[in-house]
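User: My instructor asked us to take a sequence, write out its structure as tokens, and then describe one feature of it. I'm not sure where to start. Here is the sequence I was given:
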Amino acid sequence: MTRIIECVPNISEGRDRAKIDAIAAAAETVEGVRLLDVDPGKATNRTVITFVGGPEAVCEAAFRLVKKAQELIDMRGHKGEHPRFGATDVCPLVPISGITMEELVPYARKLGERIGKELGIPVYNYEYAATEEKRRNLANNRAGEYEGLKKKLVDPAWKPDFGPAEFNESVARSGAVAVGARKLLVAYNVNLNTTSTRRANAIAFDIREAGRKVKQADGSEKQVPGKLKTVKGIGWFIEEYGVAQLSLNLTDLDVTPMHIAFDEACKSAQERGIRVTGSELVGLVPKQALLDAADFFLRRQQRSLGLPEREKIKIAVKSLGLDDLAPFDPQKRVIEYQLANAADSRLAHMDLERFSEETARETPAPGGGSVAAYVGALGAALGTMVANLSAHKRGWDERWEEFSTWAEKGEAFRRDLLRLVDEDTRAYDGILAAMQLPKENEAQKAARKDAIREATKGAILVPLRTLELCVESMSVMKAMCEKGLKASVSDAGVGALCARSGAIAAYLNVRINCVGLDDEAWKKDVLAKADRLKAEAERMEAEVMAITLAKT
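Assistant: Let's start with the prediction itself. The structure tokens for your sequence are:
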């Protein structure tokens, strides 16, 4: 999975658009970084900037942004409603996909170290990047704000993690910065069929972690917690839409995901005679949050979970009512889709005609390896289709989980094989790149030879993996021929034929790519494995065809 992180720096400028744009633009100068949002606030005199990309690129972009903010913002004259202690007040890194929090923390600390060393700005690490427990809480690090920084910096208990521990002229201008690693915060509003802010607040108090204060018999008040952990919320009335909403902050989707917050809001609203009509996302959301929501609602309906991603996203949008107030475009609202570009989907996202045209061109790639993976993906898709149809068959309701499990397996094979369509072409490009290395002296010749050998091994391992997946996927087709919908047994049989064709095609690519490889021992092992897999593909196909022919 591609590693993606988000950075959400808050700068202490919300009124001068020229400065705001110049600071935000600094992040865009880094290749591989996508600026997603710039949200200024006049009253707070603060702007929230959001950009995403790979960890190294995002950290470089964050550094450039902090540097530009240091140049353009003078904290000595700053006033605003929001707590702050620096030109770049906070700079959190957030894991989105392909990276754990544990893996992200070193990036946050290294970024803080660089800011402190190269820019001379005091840095406090917070949340998961904190060096001690009291520094986990951002409010503790920022206590006293900019005005109290001169005293704070000389306090041994609050010595910065990086940067100067003195209020010199440079620090007087730019203040300090909190650099952290934290989980994604999702701003999520739930729409109600009422105009009453009081009733909306009552529902918010039901579900938010803090709950509400309840008066006791003796006149004292007791804080009674709400239903959901890591949820903050209030009720408000939105004049633009003429409805009340629950304004929720979901601070840890691993603890309380979007669909659980929505579901509990529906329950509490119904208990109070109110109906939830839909919901609204503020900003962007990770793809997995919508996929998890789709699975949640599919399970409730006792429907197969083995559906393609695009279909699941549609189910999540409709189930959560994300298009209640305005159209919801996943391409603009899902972080991973915002990052997608033509290079990421060069072949796999082409339509059928375009892919066949690309294959027919006077170029060696895409070639047999890519076509093998695509044919295998079609086979897995057919097996998945039969599993999904079987899970939905009238009278088989008690078996939906059995078929859903097979459909999920088939869908996983389909996705992996589709990925290999492009991977095969990239492997070929790797060989071409190695062949273009210089060979002017003996050292360069040796290095070039080694590079070509390793690139060739990569070009062998890709079709070998295609061969392996095609064989493994045939277990889905066989199960569907044996147990699935009888009317679709031929589809499962065709799926097995496609998988077998993809396997044999991949086998041929393994063999042709081995020609000329000078690592004989490695080549011998690979070819032996390929021979075993080819034999298994032929055996599986014969079994599936026998079952199919017996039932047709």
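For the description part of your assignment, you could build on this observation: The chain has a mean pLDDT of 93. Try explaining in your own words what that tells you about the chain.
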